[in-house]
Specification:
345 residues, alpha/beta, Purple Acid Phosphatase, chain A, domain 2, 8 helices
């Protein structure tokens, strides 16, 4: 259903602003804290930032299910993330419009847990992409509309292959990167089919190893191929660290958006507790503006980063983005990129 939200005011008439963030994990200590403090608590003081956007999108890094039987495949899996179905109230409290489900935790509690997650999200009115009761549904995009603009969100993950949906079984949209042509063809066909139906196409990719500061070369090549195929914004996550962003012919690649809500152990050198919310303003002409808002995760809560923490993550993201030729400028405690004046909109 189209969403009614006032204009963000971040772009030109006809543009919309997306709030893109990485992993939201609502299990374990996060779940226990929510039981004590309520569903608004995990959002700390970031709700006004999210409210600047027309649409809020996050990667849901857990199953929302009562199922307790864990999935064990051919490879050891040390972490299984599950939150009770009523924890969907956290997503509602955060104004989340859609979640990516193609990731390495959506199947932690098997097909039952995955299917219940879909039902829970549907009842809450939260769109989702990247997983489903069968292959066609897992590959299909989530479709959103706001202020007369339509967005199709595709989602895929490169691990684990054992969770791949098939014609008759539930699972996620598995896509090895780089893929073979036969593996990529259905996604390319889906993008082309949506291109005439919507104004904007986003692709969520849960890809690559944990705790990696930079994407491998094959990820960059794949990202550019997806942009050439008709994707407007690539939204990556999986590393638990925000990586650099790249602009190419008016299209945007966020190679990794880090984490937003979790209870993960902190690497004191890599600082995976420091992340960002990315406000991306897009129009029919492409990306108009990107604002990067530094975040610190502490006590199972997302908070606006301050002082040395904010300076550290700003410096890191500016440096990593510069390696892709993207110049981010400090602005009111944020980093920003905007379409240079004089360029066509």
């Amino acid at each position: 259903m189209p969403k009614s939200r006032p204009s963000s005011g971040n772009g030109s008439p006809g543009s919309i602003t997306l709030a893109l963030a990485g992993d939201v994990m609502l299990g374990r200590l996060v779940r226990d804290t929510i039981r004590k403090r309520g569903p608004v608590y995990p959002w700390g003081n970031v709700l006004p930032t999210l409210a600047e956007a027309d649409l809020v999108l996050v990667n849901l890094e857990c199953a929302l299910t009562k199922e307790t039987k864990r999935w064990y495949g051919s490879e050891p899996k040390p972490f299984h993330f599950r939150a009770d179905p009523d924890m969907v109230a956290v997503l509602t409290a955060g104004g989340v419009d859609a979640v990516a489900l193609a990731n390495n935790h959506i199947g932690d509690f098997g097909p039952k847990g995955l299917l219940e997650t879909l039902e829970v999200l549907d009842r809450a009115g939260i769109a989702h992409g990247g997983a489903g009761p069968d292959l066609a549904t897992a590959r299909a995009p989530a479709r959103l509309a706001v202020r007369g603009r339509r967005l199709a969100l595709f989602a895929a993950a490169d691990y684990p292959a054992e969770w791949a949906a098939s014609i008759g079984t539930p699972g996620m949209h598995f896509l090895p990167i780089p893929p073979r042509e036969t593996e990529l063809a259905p996604l390319l066909e889906g993008i082309q089919a949506e291109r005439s139906q919507v104004e904007h196409i986003a692709l969520s990719l849960h890809w690559g190893p944990n705790m990696c500061e930079q994407p491998p070369r094959e990820f960059r090549r794949f990202a550019h191929r997806m942009l050439d195929a008709g994707v407007d914004v690539i939204w990556g996550h999986s590393a638990h660290l925000p990586q650099g962003m790249e602009l190419s012919n008016g299209k945007l690649v966020l190679y990794d958006t880090g984490d937003l809500i979790d209870d993960y152990a902190v690497d004191e050198a890599l600082r995976n507790d420091l992340s960002a919310i990315f406000l991306v303003t897009v129009s029919s002409a492409g990306t108009e503006r990107v604002e990067v808002i530094p975040i610190r995760i502490a006590e199972q809560q997302a908070r606006l980063a301050e002082g040395d923490d904010a300076a550290w993550i700003r410096s890191r993201l500016a440096r990593l983005s510069a390696e892709f030729g993207t110049v981010l400028m400090p602005e009111d405690g944020r980093l920003s990129w905007c379409l240079p004046s004089g360029e066509p909109r």
